[in-house]
Amino acid sequence: MTCAPVSTTLSAVIARRRLAAAALVLAAPVLASCGGNFNQQTNQVYNPAEGVDERSGAVDVLNALIVSGTNGSGTVVTTFVNNNQNTDDRLKSVAGSGPDASLKVTPGGPTTIPAGGLLNLADKGRIFVEGERVKAGYFVELTFTFDRGQAITVEVPVVNAAEPEYADVPQPSTSPAGIESTTPSEAPSESPSEPAEESPSADES
């Protein structure tokens, strides 16, 4: 019996689910910690994907990486876990730092990290970056800033969008609206025709 080929659409959906599942595996001990006692295995870091983890702050950064389809540009993928069980937090800014301080960031997508919950950019994120080191095989230094939690700086790997597990990650093409743009050293544009609105300050790290 000959089976029909699986569609590329189905493959993309499966790829997205794998990224989301990887993040949930990492986040499970944190999300479950308020519900009972767990053995020491819950404290072991299991990273089923290629990203990096940083758990030192009020917000955990899990499986962080950049997916690049074209040298010089890519999409930030990570999961934020809010360790505060009572108060929401919010992703305030994303910026390059250290050797990647000139990184251009085009932010977008949801920013709220629910109390005791998570925000998974693999599903909903639209944070695009452009820079010299945004190439598969390189590392890029990123700083994530939050409303309440401390800023987190990590060196994240850049992976190839051609790999099946990243097939459904959107690549830079437009400039979506969302969290503040945080391109270091970029002067804010003047728009006298519009009234000034309250906005968070750039790069508090």
Which secondary structure elements does this structure contain, and how are they paired or packed?
Blueprint: H1 8-32, E1 52-54, E2 59-70, E3 73-82, E4 89-96, E5 104-106, E6 112-113, E7 118-120, H2 121-124, E8 128-130, E9 139-146, E10 152-160
Q: Write down the domain tally.
A: 1
Mean pLDDT score? 74
The quaternary organization reads as single chain
CATH architecture: Sandwich
Backbone shape: globular
Terminal residue distance: 60 Å
Largest sheet: 10 strands, mixed
Structure overview:
With 205 residues, the protein is of the alpha+beta class. The protein has one domain (8-166): PCu(A)C copper chaperone (Immunoglobulin-like). The protein has 2 helices and 10 strands. The chain has helices at residues 8-32, 121-124; strands spanning 52-54, 59-70, 73-82, 89-96, 104-106, 112-113, 118-120, 128-130, 139-146, 152-160. Strands 1, 2, 3, 4, 5, 6, 7, 8, 9 and 10 form a 10-stranded mixed β-sheet that branches. A hairpin with a 5-residue loop joins strand 9 (139-146) and strand 10. The longest helix is centred in the N-terminal third of the chain and has 25 residues, at 8-32. Mean pLDDT is 74; it is low at 1-18, 20-48 and 174-202.
